[in-house]
Write a structure and sequence with these properties.
The complex is a heterodimer.
Chain A (H helix, E strand, L loop, with lengths): L4 H25 L16 E7 L23 E8 L6 E3 L15 E3 L5 H37 L1
Helix pairs in contact in A: 1-2
Chain B lengths: L39 H4 L7 H32 L6 H33 L3
Classes of the chains: A alpha+beta, B mainly alpha.
């Protein structure tokens, strides 16, 4: 535990939530995009996968799972951004430029699997998490100030 | 039987080392945090250095730390001005806060040392 470990851990949380918010913003901006960059379908919703930053165990044994400890965590990081593979909604619109021309879904347009309500909920969650991490940093700063007061007395 | 070791994880091959076991290889499992929960006999262990050289080295390392923190803060501030997309707002502000705290902390420490020296040196 160092002097600034709490602040560093909080900073990782702030960065992760900021990136999560960026992903949510991109999802909302592309909520009606019927053609992706590859041209093979509509935009698919992105999801953020986070994992803790921790010291890696050198070895794990099934018979001593509690014997190995990785120590105190170091925060959170975004492991990767993945596409949501949920089914795409369809809308019948034969005149649409991206309407399917052949097959059983002829005349249908595949829409992005972005639910605005769900994205807004995620955005509020990300915002609250950001505030919570900022509060952790503020709490740490108050501890520092109290420690400095001890020296000034 | 309890197996414990206060050393870090270090294992090439072999089985966990039992207490009292004699072997050239051992799996030292980390069960305590390096700064907490140490056995009592390790709590007070400190390096033996002379007071003079420890204070000088402490002061030098502290000043270097202040310079490093200040330089990092200034670098992020400049970066936020000429390339705002490359840096987060909280990174800039936290770097400035750390720099400010290190400076205040050093000032308080130095004031304490000077005050102590004056109290010791003033004749009564």
């Amino acid at each position: 535990m160092g002097m600034f470990d709490t602040i560093n851990i909080g900073a990782t949380g702030l960065s992760a939530q900021r990136l999560r918010l960026d992903v949510i913003a991109n999802n909302i901006a592309n909520a009606n995009t019927t053609r992706n960059t590859h041209g093979d379908g509509p935009f698919r919703r992105d999801r953020v996968v986070m994992s803790p930053i921790n010291m890696r165990s050198v070895w794990r044994a099934p018979i001593y799972p509690h014997g190995l400890e990785k120590g105190m965590g170091r925060g959170v990081k975004v492991e990767r951004i993945v596409k949501d593979r949920r089914p795409l909604p369809l809308r019948y619109d034969p005149s649409h430029p991206d309407a399917i021309q052949i097959g059983p879904k002829k005349g249908y347009v595949e829409l992005p699997n972005v639910n605005i309500v769900e994205e807004m909920t995620d955005m509020i969650s990300a915002s609250r998490s950001y505030e919570a991490n900022a509060q952790v940093i503020l709490g740490s700063r108050q501890m520092f100030q109290k420690a400095l007061e001890l020296g000034r007395a | 039987m309890e197996i414990y070791s206060t050393k870090g994880v270090n294992f090439p091959n072999g089985l966990p080392k039992l207490m009292g076991a004699q072997s050239h290889t051992s799996l030292a499992m980390r069960k305590t945090h390096p700064l907490h929960m140490l056995p009592e006999h390790q709590l007070d262990q400190t390096e033996k250095t002379s007071a003079k050289e420890s204070f000088a080295s402490l002061l030098e390392s502290t000043i270097q730390g202040i310079e490093k923190a200040d330089a990092h803060s200034k670098k992020l501030s400049m970066q936020a001005v000429y390339d705002p997309d490359s840096v987060e707002a909280h990174q800039v502000l936290l770097a400035a806060e750390k720099s400010r705290f290190v400076l205040n902390f050093t000032k308080v420490l130095a004031d304490g040392v000077i005050r102590t020296f004056r109290e010791l040196s003033s004749p009564r």
